[in-house]
Amino acid sequence: MARQIPDYLLHDGIILCRTVLAAEYLRKWKSASDAHYRDLEMEPRNGDSANITSIAGTRERFVPTASSFTIGALRSESNVTELLNSISTGVAGMWIRNILGWCPLCNLDQSWVRRQYAPSRYPPLHAPHGWHQDGALKFDFQSHPDSEFPRNAVLNMVTCWIPLNSCGLDAPGLELITERLGALLSPRQLQTEFLQTRFTPKRFWQPSLGPGDALLFRGDILHRTHVMPEMTNDRTSIELRFFSAVSIPERLQADRFIPFG
Question: Which domains, ranges and CATH numbers included, belong to the chain?
Answer without folding.
Answer: 8-42+50-259 (2.60.120.620)
